[in-house]
Amino acid sequence: MEQEDTSQEQSAIQQNNLTQTTARLSAGKDGRARRLGWGVRFLVNVCRLLLGLTFVFSGYVKAIDPLGLQYKLQDYLGALSLQACVPDSVTLGISVLLSALEFSLGIFILFAIRRRVVTRLALILMVCLTLVTVWVAVANPVSDCGCFGDALKLTNGQTLAKNVALLLCAVVLSQWPLGMVRFISRSNQWIAINFTILFIFLTSLYCLYTLPIFDFRPYHVGANILKGMEIPPGAPQPQFETTFVMEKNGERREFSLENYPDSTWQFIDSKTVQTKAGYVPPIHDFSIQLAEGDDITEEVLSRKGYLFLLISTHLGQADDSNFGDIDQIYEYAQQEKIPFYCLTASSEKEIQHWEDITGAEYPFCMTDETTLKTIIRSNPGLLLLKDGTIIRKWSHNRLPDSEELKGPLAKLPIGQMPEDSVAKTITQVVLWFFLPLILLTLADRTWAWSQVVRRKTRLIRLRKLRRGETENK
To answer: Is the four-CA dihedral 429, 430, 431, 437 of positive or negative sign?
Structure first.
C-alpha cells in the first residue's frame, strides 16, 4: 500500500514538473507581452482592430469582384504604358491573390494568429500600398485608387491619408506583436488559417463564375437607369473660369472676363478651366446607339414592359460556349414580343465574326466600353429590365434555361424582382465563415480553460499528498 502511494506521489511530482516546464516555455514566449504596460497593450489592440477590420473589409469587397480589381490594375498599367505587356490572365490572377492576401491578413490580425509573421507581412504590404498611393496622389493617374472596390470611393488625397494611418498601425503591431490578445491556441491556428484561405479563394472563384454576390455599382438589381441619369433640381452646377491671352505692341498678357481689355488688344488664345465640380449623377455615361449613329437611349429605357439587354464589351473576347442558350432566349423574346438588344463596343469585324459562329440575329448597338464593364462583370452577360428598372442579371454561365422560360414573363419567377436581400446575403456569409471561426474560438478557449482547471486540480492533489506524508512522519 505504501508502495502504491509512493508511486502516485512520484507520478504527481513528474506531472507537476512537466506542467512547470510547459509554463516556463510559455512564459518565455509571452513574457514580453506581460512586461508591456497597459497603455502599450491598449494601443496595440486598438491598432489591431483598425488594421484588421480595414483589411477584412477591403479584401472582401475586392474578392467578390475580382474583375473590378483587374480593371483597376489595368488602369494603373495603362498609366505606365505597360498594359500591352501584361496578359489579362496575369492581372486577373494578381487580383485574386491580392484580395485573398489582404482579407486573410485581416482575419489573422483580428484573431492574433502567427502574430510575428503576420504583422511583418502586414507592414510590408502597407509600405508597398502607401508608396503606390503617394504616386497616385502626386501624378493622379486614376481618379479612384480602388482600395475598397466600388463599395466606397475615396479621393486620392483621402486614400493617402488613410494608408499613412494604417501604416502607423502596422508599425505599432510589428513592434509589439505579442501585445495582441490571442483568441486561438497556437496548436489550433492551422484550422483557422486553412479555413480562411479556402473560403476567400472559393468566394472569388464563385463570383467569377456567376456574378459578385454584392453589387455596389449604379447598375445593380433594382436600379432604374433613367432615374439614375437625372440631375435633381437645385443640384450644384460645375463652375468654370476662362482666361484670355491678348497681345498689344508685342506684349502678351492674360485677362479674365472681369478685366477684359479694350479693342486695342488683339485676341490670341483662350483657356477654360473647371474650378468647381458640380453634381454628377450615378449614371452619367450610358447611351445606346445604332450602327447608323442614331441614339435610341431614351426610346429604349422609357419603354413600358420587359426588355432584354445582352452585354458584351468585345465580342472577340466573349465566351461563346453558351451561345445556344442566348439564341434560345432571343427566340423566346421574339415569341413574347419582348425587345432584345446586344450592347457592345466591338468593331464591325468582331460583330460579323460573332454572327458567323453563333448565328445571332438580334440587333447590335454601340455603348461605351467602360460603361459595359460597369454594368455587369461577365462577357457576355444578360440583363432583364422592366419599365427601365433592372430586375435580373445573369452571367453567361448561369443563363435561364428553357424550363424557366415557359409562359409570359409577368407570370414567371424570373420576371419578378428577386426576393434575395442584402441582409440575407450578409447573414449567409456570417453563417458560412464567421460563425465557424467564432465556434472554433469558443471551443479552443473552453479547452484551454479546462486544461487550467485540470492543472490546478493536480496541484491540489499533490499538496494533499505532501501534507499527508508530513503528518505520517
So the answer is: positive
Which of 222, 228, 379 lies closest to 315 in space, CA to CA? 379
pLDDT value at 426 more than 90: no
Cα–Cα distance between 81 and 90 in angstroms, integer?
16
Helix (H) or strand (E) segment spanning residue 264:
none
Distance CA 226, CA 387 (A): 10
Cβ atoms of residues 257 and 272 within 8 Å: no
The DSSP string of 275-310 is EE-----S--S---B-TTS-B-HHHHHT-SSEEEEE
| pTM metric for this prediction | 0.82
Under 8 Å between Cβ of 156 and 140:
yes
Lookup result for grid cell 512522519 = 473
Mean of pLDDT values over 234-259: 82
At residue 314's C-alpha, the angle toward residues 309 and 319, to 5°, is 80
Element of type H or E holding 384: strand 381-386
Answer whether residue 276 shows pLDDT above 80. no
Summarize pLDDT for 231-243 with one digit per residue, the tens: 888 778 777 788 8
| Nearest of 130, 89, 86 to residue 317 by alpha carbon | 89
Q: Is 354 helix (H, G, I), strand (E, B) or coil?
A: helix
Alpha carbon separation from 117 to 198, 210, 393, 399 (Å, rounded): 20, 35, 42, 44
Q: Residue 397: name the closest of 209, 203, 208, 214 by CA.
A: 209
In the Cβ-directed half-sphere of 162, how many Cα atoms lie within 13 Å? 21
DSSP readout, 189-218?
HHHHHHHHHHHHHHHHHHHHHS--SS--ST
b/e code 94-129 from CB counts within 10 Å (16+ = b) = ebbebbbbbbbbbbbbbbbbbbeebbebbbebbeeb
Residue listed under C-alpha cell 502607423: 168
Average pLDDT on 4-33 reads 49
Count the neighbouring beta carbons within 10 Å of the beta carbon of residue 10.
10
CA pair distance 399, 380, nearest whole angstrom:
10
∠ CA 240-371-288 to the nearest 5 degrees?
Answer: 95
pLDDT digits 0-9 by tens, 105-135 = 999 999 999 999 999 999 999 999 999 999 9
On whether the CB atoms of residues 163 and 130 are closer than 8 A, the answer is yes
Identify which of 20, 14, 18, 10 has the alpha carbon closest to the alpha carbon of residue 469.
10
How far lies 196's CA from each of 191, 292, 421, in Å?
A: 8, 52, 25
Distance in angstroms (rounded) separating the CA atoms of residues 355 and 275: 48
